[in-house]
Amino acid sequence: MEIKTVFLIFGISLACFAVIITFIGLRSKNFPSKGALIGLLLLAAFLVGGTTTFAVKLSIEEQHEREEGQKGIGEETTDAAAINIIRQDQA
Question: Which residues neighbour 11 within 8 Å (Cβ) at sequence distance 6 or greater?
C-alpha cells in the first residue's frame, strides 16, 4: 500500500473519531467511564501517532521526488515550459 493511502486512512479515521466522540460526549452525561477513557485515549494516541508518522514519511517521499526531477503536484512540465517560451518569442 502506498504511503499516501495509509496517511489518508489514518487522517480520515482520526477526523471521524473526533466527530463521533464529540457527538457521544455531548449526548451522554456520564461519558466516558474510566475504562472507556483509557481505551479512547489509547485509540486517539494511535491515530494521532499514525497520522503524523505517515505525514512525515509522505513529505520526505515527495521531497525526494522533487529533487530527482520528477513531476510534482502543481509543477509545470518541461514541455509546457518550452511551449510557453516559444509562444512568447513569437509574440
Answer: 51, 55
The predicted model scores a pTM of: 0.70
C-alpha cell at 40: 479512547
Q: How long a stretch of residues is the chain?
A: 91
In angstroms, the Cα distances linking 14 to 32, 53, 57 are 18, 13, 18
Q: Are 51 and 10 in contact (CB under 8 A)?
A: yes
> What ranges in the chain are assigned the alpha helix state H?
3-27, 34-67, 78-90
Domain boundaries, the chain: 3-90
Q: What is the pLDDT along the chain (91 residues), one digit of tens a residue?
A: 899 999 999 999 999 999 999 999 999 989 989 999 999 999 999 999 999 999 999 999 999 988 888 555 555 555 666 666 666 666 6
